[in-house]
Amino acid sequence: MENIYSIISNLPFPDEITKFWKKHSLCIQKQKFPKQNIITRDWISTNSLIPYLEIDLRLPINKIRTEILNVLDFYENSSTHRGEEMHNGWWSLCLHGLSTNKTRSPRHYGYKSDSETPYKWTELSDLCPITTNAIKNSFKVEFFHRIRLMVLEPGGYILPHTDTQKSFLPKSVNIAITNPKGAYFLLKDKGIIPFEEGKAFKFDISIEHSVINISEERRVHLMVHYDNPKPEWDSFIVNSYKKNMK
Ligand SMILES: [Fe+2]
Fold first, then answer.
1. Which of 9, 25, 105, 175 has an alpha carbon 20 to 30 Å from 130's alpha carbon atom?
2. Strand partners, 174
3. Ligand 1 ion: nearby residues, β-carbon < 5 Å
């Protein structure tokens, strides 16, 4: 892995980004997968304390990428994500949510929790039937919460932040629809998540993280939040963990 800090130190990023990447991008570690007699999805999520887990989703990524990249041009930067937090070039759209452009958490729109929010498939999902069907077919879960396209423009960055306090792997998956060379996702003290186009990861969002895109292309990821996984999904997560242990 190249020394990313030496590349970004010459680019016009804010100090917060350069300091974080200087301190943490050099400590890339090989991930350890603890052994356990009986491995369950709950144990993986709450007790294994792994920072991230690649899961074995097999989506028709070429068709999905073509469909999504075509549709993004209609929406061009329409929903800046967390605009008040000074990230740069980060915007998103909901395939499933309150509406295509209501991309924030439920509390932002006056709802107390995901379970009481009237989520639905949005207008955007009608324009993305291949992606929508692929998600419906591969996630064996009872409920979807927000499902969002997360776009990071060339030169964009997401400042270091945490999303929860408790350490666990939440009921969400981040799928790289595109991951151009020069797009990096860094977890504090854990290193860079080895995203490539089509790869899907769950990760611990209590660990400080930051994303940069120093490529010339958009980085587009899909974030799927869900609840009430079915036994099939539990087995799928366990099998993904076991595959990583090998
Ligand atoms: Fe985050």
1. 105
2. 201, 223
3. 163
pTM of the model: 0.93
Contact 69, 151 (CB under 8 A): no
**CATH for 4-245 (2.60.120.330, 3.40.50.720, 2.60.40.3880, 3.40.33.10):** 2.60.120.330
For the chain, the structural domain boundaries read: 4-245
The whole-angstrom separation of Cα 20 and Cα 50 is 21
Cα(160) to centroid(ligand 1), Å: 8
Express each pLDDT in 22-75 by its tens digit.
887 665 567 889 988 899 999 999 999 999 999 999 999 999 999 999 999 888
Provide the sign of the torsion angle of the four alpha carbons 100, 101, 104, 109, taken in this order: negative
How many whole angstroms from 203 Cα to the centroid of ligand 1?
A: 10
Residue 211: phi and psi, rounded to 5, are -130, 140
For residues 238 and 234, what is the distance between their CA atoms, to the nearest angstrom? 6
